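Morning, I've got a small favour to ask if you have a moment. I'm working through a protein record and want to make sense of it properly. The fold is given in discrete form, as structure tokens running alongside the sequence. Can you walk me through what the tokens say about the fold? Thanks so much in advance, here it is:
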Amino acid sequence: MPTRPLEDTTQRPTKELSQSEVLQDILLELLSLRKKDLTPLVIFDIDDTLLSTLPRHLRILKEFTTQPELCSCFPKEAKRLASLKTVDIRYSITDTARSAGVMEETLLKELLDFWFDRFFKNEFLRADDPVAGAPDYCQEVIAQGSHLVYLTGRDEAMREGTLFSLSRHGFPMPNEKNVRLILKPKFETPDAEYKSEALEKISEMGEVAAVFENEPSHINFCQERFPQASMVFVDTHHSGKPVTPHSHIPWIKNFLKSL
């Protein structure tokens, strides 16, 4: 699994359930709500919650190192960057480069521009891999008779690549019935602002039973909006902002119930 990109600013809850218990308890709660004739709804973030973006970062980085001009002007730096693996990826591509000993500011600026021009493009979204167990767990949620909402910071221009990845890896596909995909209308809207507004619309779709998120600040405001729901922090790869998930929120590494 990915390593934390920056200094660890989160703290684990003092009383922990096993990952298997967390995942299974939510499925049991969904079944209980169905028996009460309610329509439970589970919200999943996508990036680094269901789909790992590390392969996407790495693909862009590898393409950057194949540029002839870079290899000519910065041969040592190009070699260092080319040798990196997914476990070396930090949240910021420039932090990744610095951790490999690349300190030339001009080169870092070129790398950041190269990354930005590609990271949000549909072609590169296809590089994402599923977080272990995520497709099967989402299918179990649907099998319980629950509704599923993908609430992502991706924008509408990224719909094609998002649908491709969901389909390719066996996730439930959006159908405007029991599976919905909610994307940002505008790229420039901050994720937290957009998600907070989207939660109000989601609240009208059914009984929000659980939320899965990899960003501490996002899982916290979801808990504040839906205090009766189960919150799960997915401990993969996040922005490193100095925010701690609320102490009672359980953590998981992935969606494998064997852990």
Observations:
- The two ends are 13 Å apart (CA to CA).
